[in-house]
Amino acid sequence: MAGWSKAFPSPTLPGSSEPGGAPVSGVDAPPQLSAMRSAARIGTTLDEDTTCAELIREVAGLVGGAAAVLRLGREAHPQYEAVVGNPTVLPAAGWAAATAKEAAGGGEYGVVHPVLEDGGLALCVPLAVNGRPYGALVSGREEAPFTPAEAEVLARLTEIAAAHIRHAREYDAVSGMVGKLQRALLSEPGRPHPNLDVAIRYLPVGQNAMIGGDWCETVRLHFGRTLLVVGDVMGHGLEAAVDMNAYRSWLRYIASADLPPHRILRQLDDLASAQSERRPATCLIAQIDPNRGRVTFASAGHLPPALIEGRCRTSLLPVPVGPPLGTGLGGYEPATYRLEPSQTLLLFTDGLVERRGEDIDRSLHRLAGVDFEAAPGVEDVLDTVLARLDAGHAEDDVAVLAARLHHRSAQAHVQADRS
Fold this sequence. Notes:
It is built from ten helices and 16 strands. It has helices at residues 2-6, 31-40, 48-63, 93-106, 148-185, 237-255, 261-273, 360-368, 378-388, 407-418; strands at residues 66-71, 82-84, 111-114, 121-129, 132-141, 196-203, 214-220, 226-233, 281-289, 294-300, 306-309, 314-316, 321-322, 335-338, 343-348, 398-405.
């Protein structure tokens, strides 16, 4: 802090001004205190653009003039990306880019350069830290030239901003690596038999997330049957995605033995409970046999499936609910229903319907009240349900799967019934 005090041998820094030079009423703080307060208001986020905006806002207020940031790396057509205050008091952007690059290479804090308009002066400070230039802070005003103390203070503020920009870029780089890992984990579901029309949507919660603990899977079985699965690993983010990938791999391996859904859940539970670090998960399995027009379910702590009758009524199918996977408790039971050609099956995770502070029965009732009159295909069904339930603003990851007997399979199923 001693450096801050030495930078203010006299109250020459107008620390109580608004951008443009207008004094702030009721403010009588020492200049060094104003500068320290400004420093605390710079770098409040891990966003580079926000940090630059905070820097020029504070600088313009301190000097009573204009301030802008110039990004380096665009020397062919340099221009100020943002300006606070009167832009006419700022020097040409080309001069600022050349000066900032030269000053950053020489290790100087800033260079004062006279502005030809109205006899004002401008100050250019490299936006750099540890020898890495990110751009330049440029400030200008009409009233008086900048003093050495002011140049020192603005250099300190710019150095603080540059450090925050470095952290923001490092954070973006790490987020990019996480994104690549997430994409590697996000394998596509298998392809169902042609006798079944299937559509799947996945909406991860959060701006930087591409994948979480929710998942859907389809597995081809013998004799034209298809296994449909939705699951939800406890938690969010990369850790949940890793466990999700483990559950999906186990499922594909176990399903190759052509076991009924409740026995698949039992083996998944045994595998997960044997690994103490594995997170619990809910899961709903549906085994569809289009040739017989039947579907058999088994649930591990998951919400029930929905059945859409034609384009009108939606109902929830009761399925015995066993404990979540990973508990080692077992106790899963099957439930078999008739599946007509005009019906659409909907499997989903809780993020589709749950809302904070709302009872789950009420949430499911909202799903049952969705009108699917204008949804002729399975993709249209998903478009409708996601729009009507406002899934884009869900508070949790959303995974949803819609399935319907393919029209050719449905015709064969009807002919088999008649015979």
